[in-house]
Amino acid sequence: MKELKINQEIRDKEVRLIGADGEQLGIIPNARAQELAQEAGLDLVCVSPNAKPAVCKILDYGKYRYEQMKKAKEAKKAQRVINVKEVRMTPNIEEHDLNVKAKQAEKFLGNGDKVKVSVRFRGRELGHTDQGKVVLDDFLEILGDKAVVDKKAKMEGRNMTMYLMPNDK
Question: Is residue 83 predicted with pLDDT exceeding 70?
Fold first, then answer.
């Protein structure tokens, strides 16, 4: 969390002051703002130093920092990290192997991860990239309504890749 300037650390000549209860007190000299903060028994905190003039607020700095840290912690809890798992195949994969790979991808999708499905072409297989497209279509058909295509199949060098996301229905 970034540190804010408080009390004597504020060096601006004039500041736009916001009172303890949230009302706008207008643009006043820094010394007067310091006096008002001391009279209220609170701190003068520069909440927006880049504004012209800087925006300062009269508040309890310790309590303010505690609230900010609490908000940051809650926001971090709400985040969901999405991992990308990869399933690799060849263009001449057998049906049973394709089903095994589909089961693996289904498990990844069940955990809420994205799945990168790639078909690797070697040697003369590069002449038959259409076969890779057929394999990816079959793979998607096996998964059925458990997956949604995030990025369609596309050739990238020697690989044809497609990205799948879990279907949230």
Answer: yes
Q: Domains plus CATH for the chain? A: 7-78 (3.10.20.80), 84-166 (3.30.110.10)
pLDDT band for 98, please (50, 70, 90 cuts): very high
pLDDT > 80? residue 108 = yes
Map the chain to HEC letters.
Answer: CCCCCEHHHCCCCEEEEECCCCCEEEEEEHHHHHHHHHHHCCEEEEEECCCCCEEEEEECHHHHHHHHHHHHHHHHHHCCCCCEEEEEECCCCCHHHHHHHHHHHHHHHHCCCEEEEEEECCHHHHHHHHHHHHHHHHHHHHHHHHEEEEEEEEEECCEEEEEEEECCC
